[in-house]
Design goal:
It is a single chain. Helix 3 runs parallel beside helix 7. The protein is built from ten helices and 22 strands. It folds into three domains: 125 residues, Pnp Oxidase, Chain A; 174 residues, Beta-Lactamase; 105 residues, Arc Repressor Mutant, subunit A (Orthogonal Bundle). The longest helix is centred in the C-terminal third of the chain and has 21 residues. It is of the alpha+beta class. Helices cover 31% and strands 29% of the residues. Strands 2-1-5-6-7-4-3 form a seven-stranded antiparallel β-sheet. Strands 10-9-8-13-12-11 form a six-stranded antiparallel β-sheet, with helices on both faces. The protein has a four-stranded mixed β-sheet with strand order 16-15-14-22, covered by helices on one side.
Protein backbone atom coordinates (compact mmCIF):
# COMPACT_ATOMS: atom_id res chain seq x y z
CA UNK A 1 0.00 0.00 0.00
CA UNK A 2 1.32 3.43 -0.96
CA UNK A 3 1.68 5.74 2.02
CA UNK A 4 0.34 9.23 1.34
CA UNK A 5 1.42 12.03 3.67
CA UNK A 6 -1.94 13.72 3.17
CA UNK A 7 -3.51 10.73 4.93
CA UNK A 8 -1.51 11.50 8.10
CA UNK A 9 -2.81 14.96 9.09
CA UNK A 10 -2.46 14.39 12.85
CA UNK A 11 1.26 13.70 12.40
CA UNK A 12 1.76 17.24 11.13
CA UNK A 13 -0.25 19.11 13.77
CA UNK A 14 2.63 19.41 16.23
CA UNK A 15 0.74 17.57 18.97
CA UNK A 16 3.47 14.93 19.42
CA UNK A 17 7.12 16.01 18.92
CA UNK A 18 8.96 14.42 16.01
CA UNK A 19 12.39 12.81 16.27
CA UNK A 20 14.98 14.15 13.82
CA UNK A 21 18.14 12.13 13.08
CA UNK A 22 21.15 13.48 11.18
CA UNK A 23 24.73 12.36 10.62
CA UNK A 24 27.97 14.29 10.13
CA UNK A 25 30.35 13.63 7.24
CA UNK A 26 32.46 11.56 9.66
CA UNK A 27 29.53 9.31 10.54
CA UNK A 28 28.73 10.83 13.95
CA UNK A 29 24.95 10.68 14.52
CA UNK A 30 22.83 13.31 16.24
CA UNK A 31 19.21 12.94 17.39
CA UNK A 32 16.99 15.80 18.51
CA UNK A 33 13.29 16.66 18.76
CA UNK A 34 11.29 18.98 16.52
CA UNK A 35 8.07 20.43 17.84
CA UNK A 36 6.48 20.67 14.40
CA UNK A 37 7.06 19.09 10.97
CA UNK A 38 5.24 21.22 8.38
CA UNK A 39 3.47 19.43 5.52
CA UNK A 40 3.92 21.23 2.17
CA UNK A 41 2.87 18.59 -0.36
CA UNK A 42 3.39 14.88 -1.04
CA UNK A 43 6.99 15.48 -2.05
CA UNK A 44 8.09 18.10 0.48
CA UNK A 45 8.04 18.91 4.19
CA UNK A 46 9.69 21.69 6.18
CA UNK A 47 11.42 21.88 9.55
CA UNK A 48 11.68 25.08 11.54
CA UNK A 49 15.26 26.02 12.42
CA UNK A 50 15.65 27.92 15.66
CA UNK A 51 18.50 26.40 17.65
CA UNK A 52 19.38 23.31 15.58
CA UNK A 53 23.09 24.13 15.58
CA UNK A 54 24.30 20.54 15.44
CA UNK A 55 21.52 19.48 13.07
CA UNK A 56 22.23 22.40 10.72
CA UNK A 57 25.95 21.59 10.74
CA UNK A 58 25.31 17.93 9.95
CA UNK A 59 22.87 18.76 7.15
CA UNK A 60 25.41 21.12 5.58
CA UNK A 61 27.83 18.18 5.46
CA UNK A 62 25.33 15.37 4.76
CA UNK A 63 21.91 16.39 3.38
CA UNK A 64 20.05 13.19 4.35
CA UNK A 65 17.73 13.25 7.38
CA UNK A 66 15.47 10.64 8.99
CA UNK A 67 12.35 11.84 10.80
CA UNK A 68 9.97 9.82 12.97
CA UNK A 69 6.40 11.09 13.24
CA UNK A 70 3.57 9.88 15.48
CA UNK A 71 -0.19 9.88 15.15
CA UNK A 72 -1.49 11.43 18.36
CA UNK A 73 -4.74 9.43 18.19
CA UNK A 74 -3.83 5.96 16.89
CA UNK A 75 -0.28 6.10 18.34
CA UNK A 76 1.12 4.65 15.08
CA UNK A 77 4.66 5.65 14.13
CA UNK A 78 5.97 6.64 10.69
CA UNK A 79 9.42 7.27 9.23
CA UNK A 80 10.34 9.76 6.54
CA UNK A 81 13.64 9.72 4.68
CA UNK A 82 14.39 13.29 3.64
CA UNK A 83 16.98 15.13 1.60
CA UNK A 84 17.69 18.81 2.24
CA UNK A 85 16.52 21.04 -0.61
CA UNK A 86 16.80 24.69 0.45
CA UNK A 87 16.17 27.19 3.25
CA UNK A 88 13.70 30.08 3.19
CA UNK A 89 14.06 33.16 5.36
CA UNK A 90 11.09 35.05 3.92
CA UNK A 91 7.96 34.45 1.90
CA UNK A 92 4.60 32.73 2.55
CA UNK A 93 6.01 29.46 3.95
CA UNK A 94 8.39 31.25 6.32
CA UNK A 95 5.68 33.66 7.48
CA UNK A 96 3.18 30.86 8.13
CA UNK A 97 5.66 28.87 10.22
CA UNK A 98 6.91 31.99 12.02
CA UNK A 99 3.46 32.95 13.37
CA UNK A 100 3.31 29.93 15.69
CA UNK A 101 6.79 30.60 17.06
CA UNK A 102 6.15 34.32 17.40
CA UNK A 103 3.00 33.64 19.42
CA UNK A 104 4.86 31.41 21.89
CA UNK A 105 7.79 33.83 22.03
CA UNK A 106 5.67 36.88 22.85
CA UNK A 107 3.70 34.96 25.46
CA UNK A 108 6.86 33.86 27.29
CA UNK A 109 8.61 37.22 26.90
CA UNK A 110 11.11 35.82 24.39
CA UNK A 111 10.33 37.89 21.29
CA UNK A 112 13.57 38.50 19.39
CA UNK A 113 15.32 35.65 21.22
CA UNK A 114 13.07 32.68 20.52
CA UNK A 115 12.43 33.10 16.79
CA UNK A 116 12.40 31.30 13.45
CA UNK A 117 15.76 31.54 11.70
CA UNK A 118 14.71 29.69 8.57
CA UNK A 119 12.17 27.27 7.15
CA UNK A 120 14.25 24.35 5.89
CA UNK A 121 12.55 22.54 3.01
CA UNK A 122 13.26 18.84 2.43
CA UNK A 123 12.44 16.45 -0.41
CA UNK A 124 10.58 13.34 0.78
CA UNK A 125 12.65 10.41 -0.51
CA UNK A 126 10.49 7.70 1.08
CA UNK A 127 7.78 7.28 3.73
CA UNK A 128 6.76 4.15 5.62
CA UNK A 129 4.83 2.97 8.66
CA UNK A 130 6.93 1.54 11.48
CA UNK A 131 5.85 -2.08 11.81
CA UNK A 132 5.16 -3.21 15.35
CA UNK A 133 5.37 0.26 16.81
CA UNK A 134 2.05 -0.24 18.58
CA UNK A 135 1.63 -3.49 20.53
CA UNK A 136 -1.92 -4.76 20.13
CA UNK A 137 -4.75 -3.07 18.21
CA UNK A 138 -4.41 0.67 17.67
CA UNK A 139 -7.10 2.95 19.14
CA UNK A 140 -9.82 3.78 16.59
CA UNK A 141 -9.41 7.04 14.71
CA UNK A 142 -12.78 8.65 15.37
CA UNK A 143 -14.16 11.55 13.36
CA UNK A 144 -13.79 14.71 15.48
CA UNK A 145 -16.77 16.24 13.68
CA UNK A 146 -19.03 13.45 14.91
CA UNK A 147 -22.22 13.05 12.91
CA UNK A 148 -22.95 16.72 12.42
CA UNK A 149 -21.97 16.96 8.79
CA UNK A 150 -19.64 19.82 7.88
CA UNK A 151 -21.63 21.20 4.94
CA UNK A 152 -24.92 21.12 6.84
CA UNK A 153 -23.37 22.90 9.83
CA UNK A 154 -21.85 25.53 7.54
CA UNK A 155 -25.22 26.14 5.92
CA UNK A 156 -26.94 26.49 9.30
CA UNK A 157 -24.35 28.90 10.71
CA UNK A 158 -24.17 31.17 7.65
CA UNK A 159 -27.98 31.23 7.41
CA UNK A 160 -28.27 32.33 11.03
CA UNK A 161 -25.66 35.05 10.52
CA UNK A 162 -27.61 36.39 7.54
CA UNK A 163 -30.69 36.84 9.71
CA UNK A 164 -28.99 39.01 12.35
CA UNK A 165 -30.41 42.54 12.39
CA UNK A 166 -27.82 44.30 14.56
CA UNK A 167 -24.17 44.01 15.48
CA UNK A 168 -25.02 42.80 18.96
CA UNK A 169 -27.33 40.10 17.56
CA UNK A 170 -24.74 39.09 14.96
CA UNK A 171 -22.02 38.56 17.57
CA UNK A 172 -24.30 36.57 19.87
CA UNK A 173 -25.47 34.47 16.91
CA UNK A 174 -21.91 33.75 15.81
CA UNK A 175 -20.71 32.44 19.17
CA UNK A 176 -23.96 30.60 19.84
CA UNK A 177 -23.86 28.83 16.48
CA UNK A 178 -20.24 27.75 16.96
CA UNK A 179 -21.22 26.16 20.26
CA UNK A 180 -24.40 24.50 19.05
CA UNK A 181 -23.26 23.31 15.62
CA UNK A 182 -19.57 22.56 16.23
CA UNK A 183 -19.41 22.00 19.96
CA UNK A 184 -16.93 24.87 20.52
CA UNK A 185 -17.79 25.61 24.13
CA UNK A 186 -15.06 28.22 24.57
CA UNK A 187 -14.83 31.01 22.03
CA UNK A 188 -14.22 34.74 22.01
CA UNK A 189 -14.46 37.58 19.53
CA UNK A 190 -12.04 40.49 19.79
CA UNK A 191 -12.21 43.78 17.90
CA UNK A 192 -9.48 46.41 17.44
CA UNK A 193 -9.71 49.62 19.43
CA UNK A 194 -9.43 53.11 17.97
CA UNK A 195 -5.64 53.12 18.11
CA UNK A 196 -5.30 49.80 16.29
CA UNK A 197 -2.69 48.78 18.87
CA UNK A 198 -4.98 46.70 21.08
CA UNK A 199 -7.86 44.26 20.77
CA UNK A 200 -10.72 44.14 23.23
CA UNK A 201 -13.00 41.18 23.86
CA UNK A 202 -16.50 42.23 22.87
CA UNK A 203 -18.12 38.83 23.48
CA UNK A 204 -17.17 35.40 24.75
CA UNK A 205 -18.75 32.00 25.28
CA UNK A 206 -17.90 29.63 28.09
CA UNK A 207 -15.88 32.03 30.27
CA UNK A 208 -18.56 33.58 32.45
CA UNK A 209 -18.02 37.26 33.16
CA UNK A 210 -14.24 37.20 32.88
CA UNK A 211 -14.06 37.27 29.08
CA UNK A 212 -15.82 40.49 28.07
CA UNK A 213 -13.66 43.61 28.22
CA UNK A 214 -10.26 41.88 28.44
CA UNK A 215 -7.56 43.39 26.23
CA UNK A 216 -4.69 41.98 24.18
CA UNK A 217 -1.91 44.02 22.58
CA UNK A 218 -1.49 43.47 18.85
CA UNK A 219 1.59 41.31 18.29
CA UNK A 220 1.59 39.74 21.76
CA UNK A 221 0.50 36.20 22.53
CA UNK A 222 -1.53 33.88 20.32
CA UNK A 223 -4.36 36.27 19.49
CA UNK A 224 -2.04 39.26 19.16
CA UNK A 225 0.19 37.37 16.70
CA UNK A 226 -2.83 36.52 14.53
CA UNK A 227 -3.87 40.18 14.55
CA UNK A 228 -0.44 41.48 13.57
CA UNK A 229 0.34 38.85 10.92
CA UNK A 230 -3.22 38.50 9.53
CA UNK A 231 -2.78 34.72 9.47
CA UNK A 232 -4.64 31.73 10.90
CA UNK A 233 -2.92 30.10 13.87
CA UNK A 234 -3.70 26.58 15.08
CA UNK A 235 -1.72 25.20 18.00
CA UNK A 236 -2.12 21.84 19.70
CA UNK A 237 -0.51 20.73 22.98
CA UNK A 238 0.11 24.40 23.77
CA UNK A 239 1.27 23.41 27.25
CA UNK A 240 4.35 21.64 25.84
CA UNK A 241 5.21 24.61 23.60
CA UNK A 242 4.98 26.99 26.54
CA UNK A 243 7.15 24.74 28.69
CA UNK A 244 9.74 24.68 25.90
CA UNK A 245 9.61 28.48 25.59
CA UNK A 246 9.97 28.86 29.35
CA UNK A 247 12.94 26.47 29.37
CA UNK A 248 14.67 28.64 26.77
CA UNK A 249 13.72 31.69 28.83
CA UNK A 250 15.36 30.10 31.87
CA UNK A 251 18.60 29.59 29.96
CA UNK A 252 18.63 33.20 28.75
CA UNK A 253 17.84 34.45 32.24
CA UNK A 254 20.76 32.48 33.67
CA UNK A 255 23.14 33.79 31.01
CA UNK A 256 22.01 37.41 30.67
CA UNK A 257 19.79 38.15 33.68
CA UNK A 258 16.10 39.03 34.07
CA UNK A 259 16.56 42.52 32.63
CA UNK A 260 17.17 41.02 29.17
CA UNK A 261 13.67 39.55 29.06
CA UNK A 262 10.21 40.97 28.55
CA UNK A 263 7.47 39.96 31.01
CA UNK A 264 5.40 36.87 30.24
CA UNK A 265 2.00 37.71 28.72
CA UNK A 266 -0.98 35.93 30.31
CA UNK A 267 -3.17 34.00 27.89
CA UNK A 268 -6.81 35.13 27.87
CA UNK A 269 -9.35 32.36 28.27
CA UNK A 270 -8.88 28.92 29.78
CA UNK A 271 -5.79 28.66 32.01
CA UNK A 272 -5.45 24.95 31.15
CA UNK A 273 -6.29 25.09 27.42
CA UNK A 274 -4.31 22.68 25.25
CA UNK A 275 -5.58 23.59 21.77
CA UNK A 276 -6.05 27.04 20.23
CA UNK A 277 -7.39 28.12 16.86
CA UNK A 278 -7.49 31.83 16.03
CA UNK A 279 -8.62 33.34 12.73
CA UNK A 280 -8.28 36.98 11.61
CA UNK A 281 -11.44 38.67 10.34
CA UNK A 282 -10.36 40.68 7.32
CA UNK A 283 -12.07 43.00 4.84
CA UNK A 284 -9.81 43.93 1.91
CA UNK A 285 -6.78 43.18 4.05
CA UNK A 286 -7.96 45.40 6.91
CA UNK A 287 -8.32 43.77 10.33
CA UNK A 288 -11.90 43.81 11.58
CA UNK A 289 -11.37 41.41 14.48
CA UNK A 290 -10.07 38.03 15.62
CA UNK A 291 -12.18 34.94 16.29
CA UNK A 292 -10.52 32.55 18.76
CA UNK A 293 -11.66 29.12 19.96
CA UNK A 294 -9.89 26.82 22.40
CA UNK A 295 -10.24 23.48 24.13
CA UNK A 296 -8.73 21.40 26.89
CA UNK A 297 -8.20 18.55 24.39
CA UNK A 298 -4.75 18.46 22.79
CA UNK A 299 -6.06 17.61 19.31
CA UNK A 300 -9.41 19.42 19.31
CA UNK A 301 -8.91 21.16 15.96
CA UNK A 302 -8.09 19.60 12.59
CA UNK A 303 -7.23 20.95 9.12
CA UNK A 304 -10.88 21.12 8.10
CA UNK A 305 -11.67 23.40 11.04
CA UNK A 306 -9.34 26.04 9.59
CA UNK A 307 -11.11 26.04 6.22
CA UNK A 308 -14.53 25.79 7.85
CA UNK A 309 -14.00 28.70 10.23
CA UNK A 310 -12.28 30.64 7.48
CA UNK A 311 -15.54 30.72 5.50
CA UNK A 312 -17.50 31.77 8.58
CA UNK A 313 -14.90 34.42 9.46
CA UNK A 314 -15.12 35.96 5.98
CA UNK A 315 -18.89 36.31 6.24
CA UNK A 316 -18.72 37.59 9.82
CA UNK A 317 -16.08 40.17 8.89
CA UNK A 318 -18.24 41.62 6.12
CA UNK A 319 -21.29 41.70 8.38
CA UNK A 320 -19.41 43.37 11.25
CA UNK A 321 -18.00 45.95 8.84
CA UNK A 322 -21.46 46.74 7.48
CA UNK A 323 -23.28 46.82 10.81
CA UNK A 324 -20.63 48.96 12.49
CA UNK A 325 -21.70 51.84 10.23
CA UNK A 326 -25.08 52.67 11.72
CA UNK A 327 -27.74 54.93 10.22
CA UNK A 328 -27.51 57.97 12.47
CA UNK A 329 -30.50 59.68 10.92
CA UNK A 330 -32.89 56.75 11.44
CA UNK A 331 -35.85 57.29 13.70
CA UNK A 332 -36.31 55.47 17.00
CA UNK A 333 -38.35 52.30 16.65
CA UNK A 334 -40.52 53.18 19.63
CA UNK A 335 -41.31 56.29 21.61
CA UNK A 336 -40.44 56.37 25.31
CA UNK A 337 -43.12 54.81 27.42
CA UNK A 338 -45.02 57.10 29.77
CA UNK A 339 -44.29 55.19 32.95
CA UNK A 340 -45.10 56.69 36.34
CA UNK A 341 -42.06 57.45 38.46
CA UNK A 342 -41.28 54.94 41.17
CA UNK A 343 -38.92 55.63 44.02
CA UNK A 344 -35.65 53.79 43.33
CA UNK A 345 -34.77 51.04 45.75
CA UNK A 346 -31.05 51.69 45.85
CA UNK A 347 -28.40 54.26 45.07
CA UNK A 348 -25.46 53.42 42.82
CA UNK A 349 -22.23 55.37 43.25
CA UNK A 350 -20.23 55.97 40.08
CA UNK A 351 -16.68 57.30 40.21
CA UNK A 352 -14.84 58.54 37.11
CA UNK A 353 -11.05 58.96 36.92
CA UNK A 354 -10.15 61.52 34.25
CA UNK A 355 -6.54 60.39 34.07
CA UNK A 356 -7.31 57.02 32.47
CA UNK A 357 -11.06 57.31 31.75
CA UNK A 358 -11.89 54.55 34.24
CA UNK A 359 -15.39 54.22 35.68
CA UNK A 360 -16.08 52.36 38.93
CA UNK A 361 -19.50 51.42 40.29
CA UNK A 362 -19.78 51.01 44.06
CA UNK A 363 -16.01 50.71 44.26
CA UNK A 364 -15.79 47.98 41.59
CA UNK A 365 -14.20 48.47 38.17
CA UNK A 366 -16.77 48.78 35.38
CA UNK A 367 -15.24 50.06 32.15
CA UNK A 368 -12.55 52.41 30.83
CA UNK A 369 -11.20 54.30 27.80
CA UNK A 370 -13.77 55.26 25.13
CA UNK A 371 -16.68 53.29 26.67
CA UNK A 372 -15.88 54.96 29.99
CA UNK A 373 -16.01 58.45 28.48
CA UNK A 374 -19.27 57.64 26.68
CA UNK A 375 -20.89 56.27 29.82
CA UNK A 376 -19.88 59.27 31.92
CA UNK A 377 -21.22 61.63 29.26
CA UNK A 378 -24.60 59.82 29.40
CA UNK A 379 -24.74 59.90 33.20
CA UNK A 380 -23.93 63.63 33.29
CA UNK A 381 -26.58 64.39 30.68
CA UNK A 382 -29.19 62.54 32.70
CA UNK A 383 -28.17 64.23 35.94
CA UNK A 384 -28.17 67.76 34.51
CA UNK A 385 -30.94 67.53 31.90
CA UNK A 386 -32.94 64.46 33.00
CA UNK A 387 -32.38 63.03 29.54
CA UNK A 388 -33.05 59.37 28.75
CA UNK A 389 -32.92 59.37 24.93
CA UNK A 390 -29.62 59.48 23.05
CA UNK A 391 -28.29 59.03 19.52
CA UNK A 392 -25.03 57.76 18.10
CA UNK A 393 -24.84 60.92 16.00
CA UNK A 394 -24.63 63.21 19.01
CA UNK A 395 -21.88 61.08 20.50
CA UNK A 396 -19.90 61.32 17.29
CA UNK A 397 -20.28 65.10 17.26
CA UNK A 398 -19.17 65.40 20.90
CA UNK A 399 -15.52 66.41 20.65
CA UNK A 400 -14.88 65.63 24.33
CA UNK A 401 -15.22 61.90 23.62
CA UNK A 402 -12.23 61.89 21.30
CA UNK A 403 -13.76 59.56 18.70
CA UNK A 404 -11.76 59.33 15.45
CA UNK A 405 -13.30 60.83 12.35
CA UNK A 406 -13.10 57.54 10.43
CA UNK A 407 -13.88 54.02 11.71
CA UNK A 408 -14.69 55.05 15.26
CA UNK A 409 -16.06 51.58 16.29
CA UNK A 410 -18.80 53.35 18.23
CA UNK A 411 -21.31 50.52 17.81
CA UNK A 412 -18.91 47.92 19.18
CA UNK A 413 -18.01 50.19 22.10
CA UNK A 414 -21.68 50.58 23.00
CA UNK A 415 -22.11 46.80 22.89
CA UNK A 416 -19.17 46.36 25.25
CA UNK A 417 -20.64 48.99 27.58
CA UNK A 418 -24.04 47.25 27.59
CA UNK A 419 -22.47 43.89 28.40
CA UNK A 420 -20.41 45.31 31.24
CA UNK A 421 -23.52 46.95 32.69
CA UNK A 422 -25.38 43.63 32.49
CA UNK A 423 -22.58 42.04 34.50
CA UNK A 424 -21.80 44.76 37.05
CA UNK A 425 -24.83 47.05 37.21
CA UNK A 426 -27.96 45.35 35.81
CA UNK A 427 -30.31 47.99 37.23
CA UNK A 428 -28.98 50.46 34.65
CA UNK A 429 -29.44 49.61 30.97
CA UNK A 430 -28.84 51.13 27.52
CA UNK A 431 -31.20 49.28 25.14
CA UNK A 432 -31.41 50.24 21.47
CA UNK A 433 -34.61 51.96 20.39
CA UNK A 434 -33.74 52.05 16.71
CA UNK A 435 -30.78 52.18 14.36
CA UNK A 436 -28.42 54.73 15.90
CA UNK A 437 -30.73 55.42 18.88
CA UNK A 438 -30.67 54.13 22.45
CA UNK A 439 -32.28 54.84 25.80
CA UNK A 440 -31.08 55.09 29.39
CA UNK A 441 -33.24 52.92 31.65
CA UNK A 442 -32.85 53.15 35.43
CA UNK A 443 -34.09 50.98 38.28
CA UNK A 444 -31.91 52.92 40.70
CA UNK A 445 -30.74 56.38 41.63
CA UNK A 446 -27.08 57.26 41.24
CA UNK A 447 -24.43 59.61 42.55
CA UNK A 448 -21.48 60.86 40.51
CA UNK A 449 -17.94 61.53 41.73
CA UNK A 450 -15.29 62.98 39.46
CA UNK A 451 -11.60 62.45 40.21
CA UNK A 452 -8.39 63.40 38.40
Amino acid sequence: MTLRLADLPRCFQGITPAVVGTCSKDGEPNVTYASHVYFIDEGHVALSRQFFNKTAKNVSENPFVCVQLYDSLTLEGYELDLRFNHSETSGPLFDTMAVRIQAIATHTGMLGVFKLLSADVYDVVSARMIDGFVVGPAPPATDPAGGRGEVRALQVITSRLNQARSLDELIATLLGALHEELGFAHAMLLLPDESGEKLFTIASSGYGESGVGSEVAVGQGLVGAVASERRILRVGRIGNDLRYGRAVRGEVKTAEGECALAPEIPLPGLPDAQSHLAIPLLVQGRLVGVLAVESRDIDAFADWHESFLGVIANQAAMAIETMSVDEDDARPSAAPLDVPEVAPKRVRKFRYYKGDDCVFVDGEYLVRNVPGRIFWRILEAHESEKRTEFTNRELRLDGSLGLPAIKDNLESRLILLRKRLEQKCPDLRLPQTGRGHFRLELDCAFELELRD
